[in-house]
Specification:
Elements lengths: L7 H18 L4 H16 L11 E9 L2 E6 L3 E5 L14 E7 L2 E6 L16 E4 L6 E4 L2 E9 L15 E4 L5 E3 L1 H6 L14
Parallel strand pairs: 2-10, 5-7
Antiparallel strand pairs: 1-2, 1-8, 3-6, 4-5, 6-7, 9-10
Protein name: Chemotaxis protein CheW
InterPro entries: CheW, CheW-like_dom_sf, CheW-lke_dom
Length: 199
């Protein structure tokens, strides 16, 4: 992003310090790793006992940011980072909040609010690592609420005031149903960091 005014040298230095800190902390012990995997498996299996007609249900992750609730199909959510360390990028576009390291790889951290004409929240919470088979973006949230089954027959058309290229429907309580493919393909969330020599 030429001319953006981002201090890439400072960002690379911060990411290098973050990588060193991550290595110093070490990986999870086998017992801790097993506990994390068991918790994930339990969360994903909770909805499997629900009665469902074929083709009418989708498993979704509910989360909240900037005062709005959203759902995103769980197949796009690869990981949840509870306390992410994000390196801010002054001069970056509003949707790009910074960079973080995920398993040694640099991941752009993005904010939904600017895509819907809202100011980003001051508070931060867990980071949803989203992608189609591989990590592509870290999505900032204020809270990740639950994994549930979404019944298509109970959905409403999206409000006329939102970007319908990203939102396919709304729940009765006003929760917006995000389209994963559209979100990952949105040009406002595609950042070629290699052009700037980023790590």
């Amino acid at each position: 992003m030429p001319g953006s005014g981002i201090d890439w040298d400072a960002a690379r230095a911060r990411l290098a310090r973050l990588a060193a800190l991550t290595e110093a902390e070490g990986a999870l012990s086998p017992d801790e790793a097993r506990a994390v995997l068991d918790a994930r498996a339990h969360a994903l299996s909770r909805a499997s006992t629900a009665e469902a007609a074929p083709g009418t249900l989708r498993e979704v992750v509910h989360f909240r940011t900037a005062g709005q609730r959203y759902t995103l199909e769980s197949r796009f959510v690869l990981e949840v980072i509870r306390a992410p360390e994000v390196v801010p990028l002054p001069g970056a576009p509003p949707a790009l909040r910074g960079l973080t390291l995920l398993h040694g790889e640099v991941l752009p951290v993005v904010e939904l609010a600017p895509l819907f004409g809202r100011a980003p929240p001051d508070t931060t919470g867990p980071l949803l690592v989203i992608g189609a088979g591989r990590p592509e973006l870290g999505l900032r949230t204020e809270e990740v609420e639950e994994v549930t089954l979404l019944r298509g027959r109970t959905l409403l058309p999206p409000p006329a005031t939102v970007d319908t290229s990203l939102v396919s429907a709304a729940e009765e309580d006003g929760t917006l149903v995000l389209e994963g493919e559209a979100l990952l393909g949105d040009s406002r969330l595609v950042f070629d960091l290699s052009d700037e020599g980023a790590v």
